[in-house]
Amino acid sequence: MNRSAKDIYYVKAEIEKKIKHSYLEKYIDKPAIDEEKLFLLMEMMNHSSLPESHKQRYIVTTMLVQMALDTHDKVPSLTSPNENEDVKLQKQLHVLAGDYYSGLYYLVLAEISDFEFIQLLASTIKEINEYKMKLYYNEIDSLQDYMLIRNIIDTHLLVQVASFLNISMMGKIVEKWLLVIKLINDIEHFNARKMQVHSWVKSFFDKSELSKQLTALLQQLEDEVHKLSSIYSSLSNYLETEITSIKKAYISTMGEEG
């Protein structure tokens, strides 16, 4: 399996076929497929020892889990007593949709009887939800704590899959790259005053701190990419190009602002 645009399009089409549900689509938006995570999963599978016949199923099931987690996140944590029935229905359907996507991955994996991978995904979902509860119940007291917990929520699934595939080094690089993407989104939303975080978190945010984290993380990522074996040339070439582009777009701008 390689990661050509044609392959990504084909796997996306397979995922979309799995999640198609006419009733849900009538009331809620079809969930977006995170193409960056899909690309990274395909790279990981390409360097795994799994049988070719199983690789696509592992990708599809992992993305179904990611979509289930993302869909549950769309349910507002606060409820207004003045909500109309349509709003209530939409909330309920987001919960049911997330559960539906979760159930689909069990079905796909059951077809290849991979109970070990089912167990891994189930335990990872449990761990991610526990971290989400820490945010929900305000169990943080600094920007660093908030960023750490949120970053685990965003990267833990792919990191655990990499560990399962015995490519932990690749998992560490994937983790750092996803954090870079998250920080860039934070900075862009901060600039546009569209930070979608709890009010008690906003007081922690400081653009200069976000910029420092991005600069340090890019340097760490660049150093690790340079150490990658030549067998990972596809991933390293992609990341080197992206890192250079980010430095031009963000690091130079941040230097001018400072």
TrEMBL record:
Stored InterPro entries: HEPPP_synth_su1
Single Gene Ontology BP annotation: menaquinone biosynthetic process
Gene3D superfamilies: 1.20.120.1450
Pfam families with a match to the protein in the record: HEPPP_synt_1
Annotated protein name in UniProt: Heptaprenyl diphosphate synthase
Lineage per the UniProt record: Bacteria, Bacillati, Bacillota, Bacilli, Bacillales
